[in-house]
């Protein structure tokens, strides 16, 4: 158990950041650093006023501010990033600047911090590209054409991995890289496919699947991701390593996922196929053998159990979530949405 530490979580108002804060706050001082805390997972967390959680509004691109907030920090969980297929396609420059330069700023701020005991960089399964069946961490990463803005997120994370591991090798910063695979669960908000599926099923509206629906994803429940990340903080063997964190047992096609959501919501919603307007990931399933060996990581939450919990949470917050999502433009993206955030 991590105790008595000062923990900085960049992107701390997001889904993963809030979930980790909830686990760490009982025994540590947790600083959540984010641009906003009003329209993300923090707004649904019920953690306001917690004596061990401190909110700092700011921008990861502001190096002087990043340096100030990093003072005295023992552990950094760097989750801050621009995410979401539509956001990346329409703002590739911002994606690259925030994801790479923001990472460079926090690494620079922590490089000479004698108190730093662990720096966890959140990368992505996107680095494996469109064909990723049972991929291991030593598999080749994907280097797509620079002409396709859809992969700007991937490239920014590949560059971030190289930078973080270079700080580890040359500066001795205790870095760990994690590559999450399609994380889901309560409090994940924003425009992503599973939330749209659930909202539409609960309202009896059609679920829209982009492409032919045969794209395969392995879904990992948020509690299992947090277990894996916390083990990265505790295990000495984790330093300098890259880990896939996901649940290969929860692999289904997107069409099968839509069917499960309709059934678990007791809905009569139809499932419609829509044209896909950009390159998508065909298959994405992790090999987690390395995390099992070095971290003792074993995901425990099955897909249906996780969906039941998530659906119950969406039902509890249905009016608010439905209104927030309705205010966003309808995506042309398929359900292979980027999972950090």
Please provide a written account of the structure.
This protein is of the alpha/beta class and about 350 residues long. It folds into two domains: about 5-180 and about 220-245, Rossmann fold; about 185-220 and about 250-285 and about 300-325, UDP-galactose 4-epimerase, domain 1. The protein is about 40% helix and about 20% strand. Strand 1 (about 5-10), helix 1 and strand 2 form a beta-alpha-beta unit. The longest helix has 20 residues, at about 90-110. The protein is globular. The relative contact order is 0.16. The model is unreliable at about 330-340 (pLDDT under 50).
Distance between the termini: 25 Å
Cα Rg: 19 Å
- Please indicate the count of domains: 2
Strand residues, percent: 15-25%
Largest sheet: 7 strands, parallel
Estimate the mean pLDDT confidence: 92
Low-confidence stretches at least 5 residues in length (pLDDT < 50)? 329-341
Topology:
Blueprint lengths: L5 E5 L4 H10 L4 E6 L18 E5 L5 H7 L5 E4 L6 H6 L1 H20 L6 E5 L8 E5 L16 H20 L3 E6 L2 E2 L8 H11 L3 E4 L5 E3 L1 E2 H13 L7 E4 L5 E3 H11 L6 E4 L8 E4 L2 H7 L7 H14 L1 H9 L15
Characteristics:
single chain; 341 residues; alpha/beta; UDP-galactose 4-epimerase, domain 1; 7-stranded parallel sheet; 18% strand; globular; disordered C terminus
